Amino acid sequence: MKKVITILFALVLALSLTTVALAEGITFALVTDVGNIDDQSFNQGTWEGLVAYAMEKGLVEKTGYAYYRPSEDSDDARVETITAAVEAGAKVVVLPGFLFDAAVMTAAEKYPEVQFLGVDLSPETYPANVTNIKFTEEVSGYLAGYAIVKDGYTKLGFLGGIDVPAVIRYGFGFVQGADAAAKELGVTVAMKYWYSAAFWPTDEIKAKMDSWYADGTEIVFSCGGGILNSCLAAAEEGNGKVIGVDVDQAYISERIVTSAYKKLTVGVKNLLDKLDANGGTWPADIAGVNVLQGIKDGAVGIPTEAASWRFATFTVDEYTAVFNQIADGTLVISDDITTQPATMNVTVDYQN
Questions:
Q1: Residue 224 neighbours by CB under 8 Å, 6+ apart
Q2: Are residues 111 and 64 part of one domain?
Q3: Element holding 270 (H helix, E strand)
Q4: CA-to-CA distance for 45 and 229, rounded, in angstroms?
Q5: Does the residue 153 lie in any domain?
Q6: 277-325 per-position pLDDT tens digit
Q7: What is the domain extent for residue 79?
Q8: Where is 221: in which H helix or E strand?
Q9: How many structural domains is the chain composed of?
């Protein structure tokens, strides 16, 4: 009997050691595009998803997981940085942003044993060791536009970064939501709409926002990472309000009334869980394709926490009602990014 127990103990110990060895041998890495993990928006939300997953697995930062930033804004630099992560032991590399469109293809072919997770990449198909997360940003944009107009704002602005699909979906959704609320209230709304061609603060953006607020714009949807800094600076001087993007940005400034978010943290963690459950490679149904995260996944919307709810009259119950209409298909929001949305009660001044 004692011999049997000894054998069983040895088997359990061997299995335990195997599990530990696997855990210690798996390194997760995130490579940023041109931003950093403290951008309070896209990169940070993605990084926090990786961190949440890594902590759940008991991994230690800089040995179990780490992030890398390219030395310059080029495909070569991005591939070189991915290479550095792989040579450091990374078996899973997270790549946030459309700037990785070309680099991910090169890296996936170069390192077929490495699994890549893109976020908001543009291609429709990829090698089998790549999966990409996309979001229904038009839904978040719609809900933000709807809520703001229902709360009494009638002079709006949309400040986009670079006019990539995700930004356009946010913007066109914002227009649709504002128009729906304006029709319900029987009011007319004016909206200024502009892409800044940057995801970082610039003097041009600050000057543009200064002019918008001076001209009577009450609130601006700042949709593009670091451009929020320029928008907020103008809002401070012009006594205006702002809508955040990608994550709940209420903590940054009291002037941020709400945020049109996509739960990057949740999306990244969900996909890494699927990878883990499949033994470290992408399951066949999501390998080499885009995986859409939407309202039914709880991945898009506006924050409803008390600290982030800064509407004067619009209520959580009203929000929940329209949210549920979208979720059950009663209300359909167009995801078309090729044609400007038709409106009845919103006049949009497209400035590009």
A1: 159, 160, 161, 162, 167, 196, 198, 199, 245
A2: yes
A3: helix 264-277
A4: 17
A5: yes
A6: 999 999 999 999 999 999 988 899 999 999 999 999 999 999 999 999 9
A7: 2-127+265-296
A8: strand 219-223
A9: 2
